[in-house]
Amino acid sequence: MIRLGVIALVAAALLVGCGSSSGPAGPGDAVKQFISAVRSSDGKKACSLLAPRAQAQIVHGSLSCETAIKQLGPLLAAQLTQVKIGAASVHGNSATVPLSTPRKQAIYSLQKTGGRWVISGLAGR
User: What's the half-sphere exposure (Cβ side, CA atoms, 13 Å) at 6?
Assistant: First the structure.
């Protein structure tokens, strides 16, 4: 089962336009690609952009990351157009990307692993 407390946070953080179809060039691109994958309920793509710690923030129990994303996509589709993505703050192999909606703010933490950026954590405020 999806952690209900995380749904609102994920909803706030996932509200950005589509990313490119190639691999993420930077942390902001990784976030955009993740959101695009969630919008299209592409659990495989979305989960490939999440570090294990971030996957654990979305799922609970025996539910897989891919299944959770497939369930979240349709629930969030109408809301996925009202977010502004801020400039990434990069410090070596880690970065943060702020996002905001009319009602919420969130920050994605990212890490560069194997030459590519992956989301390592989600935090709402």
Answer: 15
Q: What is the pLDDT of residues 7-30, one digit of tens each?
A: 444 544 444 333 333 456 899 999
CA dihedral 21, 23, 26, 27 (to 10 degrees): 80
Are 58 and 69 within 8 A, CB to CB?
A: yes
SS (H, E, C) 98-119: EEECCCCEEEEEEEEECCEEEE
pTM for this model (two decimals): 0.77
Domain span at 31: 4-124
Structural tokens at position 70: 């497939």
Residue type, 31: V
Which domain CATH number covers 33? 3.10.450.50
Whole-number Å distance between alpha carbons of 13 and 17: 12
